[in-house]
């Protein structure tokens, strides 16, 4: 009814010249399909929602360390220990945290000095900047967490690093760069190209 | 990874051409058992529901459930490139998430053509369609129904369906004229005649009015199936259904018109 009144009014103000353009988008006088069928908002999600949910899931995985069981340690002849995927990882999926002690740069330099005295100690220091601050994750100490055992590749890495802040503490995590198959070795670029490091560890650029 | 191959591109072409004026962008839900699509028109009066079951495809692979948002105009452009007899492979690769690829193969000439269409984000609402026992289910030749809608549209904006046990009547009346079309259900159970016959399965009489413009959009799908099925109850949306080679369907739901009190 209301629709008719409006249409009549419109007719007065605009003289009826020619035919009105036929348009399918003209629901006046028609019920909506949504009056009959309920909208199931839950089944389909917007991109923002999905983003939020994945980031929550990632946070959860970081806090609980639940992702560790999806990885396996293997022995590789020339490299020593390495980590392989125990399930398929999708592109951009969170894989593992590089877990260790989060320290500032000054403390890190000091520790590195100490570690270099002992040749049996490997290098497990990862330096990164986040929000203008320098940080370092020291994973030198043996731990059950597998992030520290992931090997390096400059040429063909399948992981990339990412910093995720949880409760104002930055966490250094490894994210799948592409689809990763089961039993594929996980590799990321350590990023260290300083001359000293490359001289002592030629694999930094060669692998 | 999603990969599905249709024996002939013509089928998909027909489907998309029959819905693209109603729905501009549509979310395709790919799952293990079927390729589905559900979308409303922009004014939320009509709903399109498409289901293509695995049986329709020559090969079908879907590793996980995915939603692909596609502009139907662009999809129609892609399908236009195909000859009707070409096979049509629909490909979506998880590592190449922005695009969907249509690969057409003309086996006679050993010609292949790959058309890439950009995907889009669609924030569409998914409707839960309740299972419903309809008061009246009519089956008739789809070309006949198409003609009914076309004829009524000449004078009227609306189509009234009145169905009793003995008779189904489609009518429309406008300022300049009117039109009434009656069918008595054909009793013949002969399979030969079934294609041509009008059958009524009635529990309760129905009297309901719809917008003819939408009906004329739906009947563009007449080429998909010889028979159209109309399921109706008073005061609920009608279902206009075209079967797709017994392995899927294209359904249109249309909400009834608000009846004028004067009539």
Automatic annotation (TrEMBL), chain A:
All copies of domain SET, residue ranges: 69-191
Principal location class: nucleus
EC nos: 2.1.1.361
Reaction catalysed by this enzyme: L-lysyl(20)-[histone H4] + S-adenosyl-L-methionine = N(6)-methyl-L-lysyl(20)-[histone H4] + S-adenosyl-L-homocysteine + H(+)
GO MF, one annotated term: histone H4K20 monomethyltransferase activity
GO cellular component terms listed in the entry, alphabetical order: nucleus; polytene chromosome
Compartment annotation: Chromosome; Nucleus
Ranges for region Disordered: 1-30
Keywords noted in UniProt: Chromatin regulator, Chromosome, Methyltransferase, Nucleus, S-adenosyl-L-methionine, Transcription, Transcription regulation, Transferase
Protein name: [histone H4]-lysine(20) N-methyltransferase
UniProt source species: Plectus sambesii
TrEMBL record, chain B:
Major location (coarse): nucleus
GO molecular function, a single term: DNA polymerase processivity factor activity
Protein name according to UniProt: DNA sliding clamp PCNA
UniProt cross-references to HAMAP family, sorted A to Z: DNApol_clamp_arch (MF_00317)
Keyword set, alphabetical order: DNA replication, DNA-binding, Nucleus
SUPFAM superfamilies reported for this sequence: DNA clamp
Gene3D superfamilies: 3.70.10.10
Record-linked PANTHER family: PROLIFERATING CELL NUCLEAR ANTIGEN
Domain (Proliferating cell nuclear antigen PCNA N-terminal): residue spans on this chain: 1-124
């Amino acid at each position: 009814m209301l629709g008719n009144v409006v249409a009549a009014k419109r007719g007065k103000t605009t003289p009826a010249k020619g035919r009105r353009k036929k348009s399918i988008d003209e629901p006046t006088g028609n019920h909506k399909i949504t009056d009959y069928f309920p909208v199931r908002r839950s089944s389909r999600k917007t991109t923002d929602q999905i983003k939020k949910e994945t980031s929550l899931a990632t946070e959860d995985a970081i806090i609980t360390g639940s992702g560790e069981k999806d990885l396996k340690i293997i022995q590789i002849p020339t490299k020593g220990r390495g980590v392989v995927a125990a399930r398929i990882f999708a592109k951009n999926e969170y894989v593992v945290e590089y877990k260790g002690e989060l320290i500032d740069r000054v403390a890190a330099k000091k520790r590195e000095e100490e570690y270099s005295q002992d040749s049996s100690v490997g290098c497990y220091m990862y330096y990164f900047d986040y929000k203008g601050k320098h940080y370092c994750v020291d994973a030198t100490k043996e731990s059950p967490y597998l992030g520290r055992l992931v090997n390096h590749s400059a040429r063909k890495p399948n992981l990339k690093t990412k910093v995720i802040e949880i409760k104002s503490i930055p966490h250094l995590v490894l994210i799948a760069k592409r689809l990763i198959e089961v039993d594929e070795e996980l590799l990321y670029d350590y990023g260290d190209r300083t001359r000293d490091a490359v001289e002592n560890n030629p694999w930094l650029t060669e692998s | 990874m999603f990969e599905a191959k249709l024996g002939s591109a013509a089928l998909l072409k027909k489907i998309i051409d029959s819905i693209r004026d109603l729905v501009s962008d549509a979310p395709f839900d790919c799952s293990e058992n079927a390729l589905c699509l559900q979308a409303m028109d922009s004014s939320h009066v009509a709903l399109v529901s498409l289901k293509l079951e695995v049986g329709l495809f020559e090969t079908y692979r879907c590793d996980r459930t995915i939603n692909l948002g596609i502009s139907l105009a662009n999809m129609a452009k892609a399908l236009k490139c195909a000859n009707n007899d070409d096979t049509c492979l629909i490909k979506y690769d998880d590592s190449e998430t922005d695009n969907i690829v249509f690969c057409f193969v003309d086996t006679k000439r050993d010609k292949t053509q790959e058309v890439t269409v950009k995907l889009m984000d669609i924030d569409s609402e998914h409707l839960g369609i309740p299972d419903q026992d309809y008061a009246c289910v009519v089956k008739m030749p789809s070309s006949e129904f198409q003609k009914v809608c076309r004829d009524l549209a000449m004078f009227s904006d609306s189509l009234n369906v009145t169905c009793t046990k003995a008779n189904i009547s489609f009518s429309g009346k406008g300022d300049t004229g009117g039109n009434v079309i009656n069918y008595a259900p054909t009793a013949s159970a002969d399979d030969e005649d079934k294609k041509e016959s009008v059958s009524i399965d009635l529990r309760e009489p129905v009297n309901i009015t719809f917008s003819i413009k939408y009906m004329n959009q739906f009947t563009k799908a007449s080429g998909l199936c010889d028979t159209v099925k109309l399921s109706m109850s008073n005061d609920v949306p009608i279902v206009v259904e075209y079967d797709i080679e017994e392995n899927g369907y294209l359904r249109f739901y249309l909400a009834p018109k608000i009846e004028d009190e004067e009539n």
